[in-house]
Amino acid sequence: MRDVLRRLLAGELTEAEALAELRRVQLEELGVEARLDLGREGRRGIPEVVMASGKSPEAAARLAVSLAGEQGQGLVSRLGAEHWATLEGVARAAGFEVLRYHRAARVLRPDFAPEPRDGRVALLTAGTSDLDAADEARMVVEACGMEARIDADLGVAGLHRLLGPLAELLAWDPDAVVVAAGMDGVLPGVVAGLLDRPVIGLPVSTGYGHGGAGEAALGTMLQSCSTGLVVVNIDNGVGAGAAAVLIAGRAAAGSRRPRSARARPGPGGPARRS
Fold this sequence. Notes:
Number of domains: 2
Radius of gyration: 21 Å
Structural class: alpha/beta
Number of strands: 11
Distance between the termini: 42 Å
């Protein structure tokens, strides 16, 4: 870091070049348990998320609060019942706030708010059992400073429940849509067949018997005849939220670059043209 700053002061780097180098080296080691990637949000526009499952309550809480101390917010997913009391206790001792998202949480430093970004993400669920995964995606969207809207219990077992909320959704004008569904996992394909927005299918591990751990929902979404539906892994709300943020951010920004800039050769050689 000192080397980058010296080169910046000497005029060997522009501010943008110095920032790019610093983003590549912002890693903090915490004991021997984990490395927090503090530069991820700068590189990708999406903050790191700590997965609590498999970690002790103390370790998960320490990582999330450390992120919040460094960056203003710390995201943590897959919180079990045993994690909540420890997380809230450690956060409270540090003077931080905890926002709950079903089995996920954001730890916020006082007076911190993410910088608002253009982009809207809608989240739909087939049933209330799918809210855990959908709310995990909502946490990521809101942590990135984008607007999120969630509508639940719209499954195709009662198709009439879908049409009114879908019309309201179009009036809200989202840039991307995440659809969470377990059981047979049909809802994302139905929504993708009705909307002109990018739809991300989020299969959820709810159901009965054969395929009841989310495999049936994943298979249905992968085999959907609705063109353009993209699918993340089972229960991967963080991945769905991150994909939605990247899509919504680009869609909201629009195509501001001229064609000549888009075709400029990169470091690997001249750009290909079709």
